[in-house]
Specification:
Rossmann fold; Dihydrodipicolinate Reductase, domain 2; alpha/beta; 15 strands; homodimer; 12 helices; 7-stranded parallel beta sheet
């Protein structure tokens, strides 16, 4: 008996979560929603997902485009064991009363404020706390990337302090209505960026300050981390820890990975849509100076939260313990199979 | 008995041709070459291709990187029925004496001058002329995109004159050493761009003038075409012709295809590496003004020549006639299956 998952919002995150759910042996996608009958709606149908209209007033648009919908979002969530809300930032909070009324559990994404849910979630860091919860928020791509690495460093060596500089892709590749094509934008100008406080929603005891900039690229975010460790650790000690974690992928300049452009070129062969569910850490960037660790990592903003959504489903519906869920998610998504 | 294909140069074109050859039931990849032991070399091995060193002096580099090579490019081509030369522009011509010495047929890419080969090739336009030939050049991405459309228009309605403006992606996505991030570059400033004369290497009777510009994107080229037709044709007549040709894919703004960004977003779901082997023509851009046809098309520079290379192999080795080869190529690469 598979648990029934509804995907509310079949966009950048929703389409990836839908495909990932479909690859699990203990859950199924019972339907996805779209607001408009565009190529993504047609792709959902092509892939065999049942399509529902996210905005009842737009039903006519689908009809006149000749696209069959099964009903509206209400019809969908009433059949679901859990909803993964993948609507744009802030819309998730607007949707919450609907989930409450239907009495259905819901997962929100990192574009929502933390108080939309009972818990901000990362599978490595706090899977157990999500067990049985009704509303959980999977933290954003940058925060997920930070939390994974910081959790590993903290549990292995202890963390005194973190200073992180985020160099962010300005928009996702499909975006053609906004952007920044010739500049570097401090975002925000005044410290801290929201990422530090957001990390603390998952790892409250970590002392972290983050600064962020947007730059003209769509491919990935890059993080330059400085982590003051409590215990002395060598570069090899850190590499050992990362090599054991499937959700961290170590790459090297010697293999031709001179930029995110090359990482994505490689990923285009590995997974459809060049999805990288792993933190991509440059092995050669790992440097210990005194008691401070430096490292550079790249985060695929469209894909990295996907495994976290799958694990959140299992935790909230009490389908598996942490170790089993992560193992199943990793195996089904080929996480940990691309070490180079 | 499958014909033995060697791929000399496993880069942007080579890796795609290798995968496409592997999908045919009448040919096989007997090996690929790389100059350096980078991630692309490791990917070739991961995919099961036998790797050969393209530059004998670099054998040591592969050894010290722990990458097993089967030998050098000479060893490879001596076992081949045909070589697909996918080395960077101008290097193909340097390689030709090696192929002549080995007595092996060879296909060159559009980065070479036309006199490297006996024939400049496009499957729709002049498959028959390549039958039995020893040296054939598959024309470049932009020229392939132009030739396909012009061949169809010419055979159906007759062409008086063509005026084409090419708006070109500045570099391929993996490129991080050169580019143009903030400008529009007439390339060349003085008319014509090389594309017009290059079209005439395949369709010598077409009166065509081309102008080209580079712009800061990596995703696709876009062509704005003006074609003066001999016979009166309506917009629907043109659409009918395009709808019957699998290598032309019609898309529409109504489906959300507002830019190449959206076309690629869609393609990321369709094929690995988001390869688009088809000309992507905006249906809504097809307009007849007097006896002049206007249309806008997008050309995926990394992928569009791939089916042409497969058809060139069949023609040169006399394995199939035009219709059969194109049918097999299209079927194996899902060309013609993504009409929206």
């Amino acid at each position: 008996m598979k648990v029934k998952v509804a995907i509310n919002g079949y966009g950048t995150i929703g389409k990836r979560v839908a495909d990932a759910v479909s690859k699990q042996d203990d859950m199924e996608v019972i339907g996805v929603t779209k607001t408009k009958p565009d190529f993504e709606a047609k792709m959902a149908i092509r892939k065999g997902y049942k399509l529902y209209c996210a905005i009842p007033e737009n039903l006519e648009l689908f009809e006149s485009a000749g696209i069959r919908v099964e009903g509206t979002v209400d019809d969908l969530i009433n059949k679901a064991d859990i909803v993964v809300d993948c609507s744009p930032g802030k819309v998730g909070a607007q949707n919450k009363p609907m989930y409450e009324k239907a009495g259905v559990k819901a997962i929100f994404q990192g574009g929502e404020k933390k108080d939309v849910a009972e818990l901000s979630f990362n599978a490595l860091a706090n899977y157990e706390k999500a067990v049985g919860k009704n509303y959980v928020r999977v933290v954003s791509c940058n925060t997920t990337g930070l939390v994974r690495v910081l959790y590993l460093l903290d549990t292995n060596f202890g963390i005194e302090k973190v200073r992180a500089v985020m160099i962010r892709r300005v928009v996702d590749p499909k975006e053609d209505k906004k952007g920044l094509v010739n500049g570097i934008m401090p975002d925000p100008v005044k410290l801290p960026s929201h990422h530090g406080p957001d990390v603390q929603t998952v790892l409250p005891h970590i002392d972290i300050t983050t600064v962020a900039f947007k730059v003209p690229t769509t491919l990935m975010h890059v993080h330059s981390l400085n982590v003051q460790l409590k215990e002395k650790a060598s570069e090899d000690d850190v590499i050992d820890v990362f090599e054991k974690e499937p959700r961290i992928l170590l790459v090297s300049k010697d293999d031709g990975f001179t930029s995110t452009a090359k990482i994505i070129e490689w990923a285009r062969e590995l997974r459809i849509r060049y999805d990288l569910f792993e933190n991509v850490v440059w092995r050669d960037s790992i440097a210990v100076v005194g008691n401070e660790l430096y490292l550079t990592q790249a985060i695929h903003q469209e894909a990295i939260v996907v495994p976290e959504n799958i694990d959140a489903i299992r935790a909230m519906l009490e389908m598996a313990d942490k170790e089993e869920s992560i193992r199943k998610t990793n195996e089904s998504l080929d996480i940990g199979k691309f070490q180079i």
